[in-house]
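Morning!

As promised:
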Amino acid sequence: DADVTQTPRNRITKTGKRIMLECSQTKGHDRMYWYRQDPGLGLQLIYYSFDVKDINKGEISDGYSVSRQAQAKFSLSLESAIPNQTALYFCATSDSSGSHNEQFFGPGTRLTVL
Amino acid sequence: AQKVTQAQTEISVVEKEDVTLDCVYETRDTTYYLFWYKQPPSGELVFLIRRNSFDEQNEISGRYSWNFQKSTSSFNFTITASQVVDSAVYFCALIGDSGGGADGLTFGKGTHLIIQP
């Protein structure tokens, strides 16, 4: 079984709809991240969480919110989706006590906003 | 602020040729970590290597090698005797230690490598 899972893997939605992307991990890591990837732009950090009680904005957090429901779960929400949020979204985890700073990525969620 | 530059947007070579992907970075941190990831057409991110700022030894892993030079702030990646399966987008990334290493990776925009048979 994969250590970092994302659901759904693909999603098509309409402008204005609320959508949630979920990430779960079995690695026991304390840190979790959400990135988005746009063609030709690499990955950009949306939000990150040091632990359940700590949430931090990344470089492109506008239009997004997150929830760290448990150490193993980190959800990303688009309250009112817009077409320029069409992208590939990655969740990642890392362990503050382990191999320093290595991040483990989920398989990605491809989101299309029409 | 941190920055990673991968100036080569796309590289196309014929199979068995050697190819080098360039990565130049900027950071004010004295301790930092550099990474390379591979993204094949299937979309997942595959970790290739991590290098910390105090270790300038070059590394070789099979056909892959990495040249880290602090003097030029570069962390270049060479594939020797390229194969079609090496075709992918390759990302260089950086994380500094000033935020405890917890504030996420800074990625370059990626280099699309095409290996022609």
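The longest strand of chain B covers residues 88-96.

Hope this helps with the figure draft.
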